User: What shape does this take?
Amino acid sequence: MNQNKTQNDQPSSVSNNLFSDITEQERRDAIEKIIESSSPRKSYFMMIVISAILCTLGIMGDNAAVIIGGMIIAPMLSPILSVSMGIGMADFKLIYRSLRVIFISVAYTIVFSFATAFLLDKVEYDQMNKEMMLRVGVSLESLLVALVAGMAAALSVIRTELHKYLAGTAIAVALIPPLSMSAVGLRMFDLEIFYQSFMQFFFSLCGIILSSLLVFALSRFYISKQKVEQELREEEEMLCNSKKIDS
Assistant: This one.
């Protein structure tokens, strides 16, 4: 009976060990990294544009390698993680700021993907290739991938020894490709393809937020709210100084 009790306690023990030994310094480093990498700077949006163009070219050229390249360099995962972190901390300023970054990122992606698709030959519905078909519609598999990838992304940011796996999670979860396919759908004058592709992005977005929120909650990020407020103040000062220099 004692043996059974020990075996039953093992899963909870593993869970406790995974999250309970996260230090305050690791939380502070993760907050700094997430906020810095999702800051609405010109360099961030430049990478979004480049990623959108690459993914569009890969989708229309049926080239998975080019799409993967575009997914690796896309920084959109960072503001999504900062949304879930803001929800876990009940920090509405961080939530609003991060959602605004995501909204602008989506707009840039669709606009530049449409422009790229417009320069290429128009594709009819019966000419859609394999990569195009993969970006249309929502499936249980894509939602599960987003949930698992969201947990992996949050853990990769928090745990120092897991930082090297963050790029892998960016490949696992598709964020830019379905948005690019939405733009291709507009180029095809097919609103159904636009809608189905956009919903794939939306469900991936929701899956990442939900699963990463769970990780941040279990890691007790709510006790480091002051660090978030400090980082946001520094970001505001940096952006203000950048505008003054530009003007």
User: Anything to note?
Assistant: Residues 26-229 form one domain.
